Amino acid sequence: MKKILFLAVFCFSAISVFAQAPLENGRVQLNAGIGTSGWGTPVYVGLDYGVGSNFTIGGELSYRTHNERYAGTYYDYSVTGLGANVNYHFNKVLNIPSQWDFYGGLGLNYYIFNYDDRNYNGTEDSDIGLGVQIGGRYFFNKNFGINIEGGGGNATSGAKIGITYKF
Which residue range or ranges hold the Outer membrane protein beta-barrel domain (predicted)? Predict the structure, then answer.
């Protein structure tokens, strides 16, 4: 049993040695997952692009829907979010191992809200928001990892978890 445990730890460590984080200059990564919010569970997909040794810029598309009954009326909501972000990656400053990526940044987001209370045809509204985020990733190898992020002022305000794939 000890040999199997040692082999598993060795293999996991060997895979982790080849991970490269944060995103290198000129590389692209795809992020996708789910989030939390007061208006349903958002799903998101986004891209990040390495623009320097510690900076990335990116974009994100998210969608969520929610329905509820209030005072005898059913309400349906949906929110589509389009966002752009810039993040600073703290790996070098904090001397973090390369399989980890710790970042924080700002985002500019555009939302399209759709409301329908089933008594009317529904309404549509939009809004722009400035958001902040802080998050981290763990890479299992040089291309694939998991991510978790928290923040506010964006279409997935609260938290989100997902996967990351580097190209």
Answer: 9-155
Round to whole Å and give the CA distance between 122 and 94.
Answer: 50
Kindly list the structural domains of the chain, giving each domain's residue range(s) and its CATH number in brackets, ordered by start.
2-166 (2.40.160.20)
Q: Per-residue pLDDT tens for 96-145? A: 998 999 999 999 999 898 877 666 666 677 889 898 999 999 999 999 99
User: Can you tell me the distance from the alpha carbon of 119 to that of 104, in angstroms, rounded to the nearest whole number?
Assistant: 43
Q: Phi, psi at residue 13, to the nearest 5°?
A: -65, -40
Distances (CA, A) of 19 to 48, 93, 130: 17, 18, 32
* Closest listed residue to residue 21, CA positions, set 50, 64, 44: 50
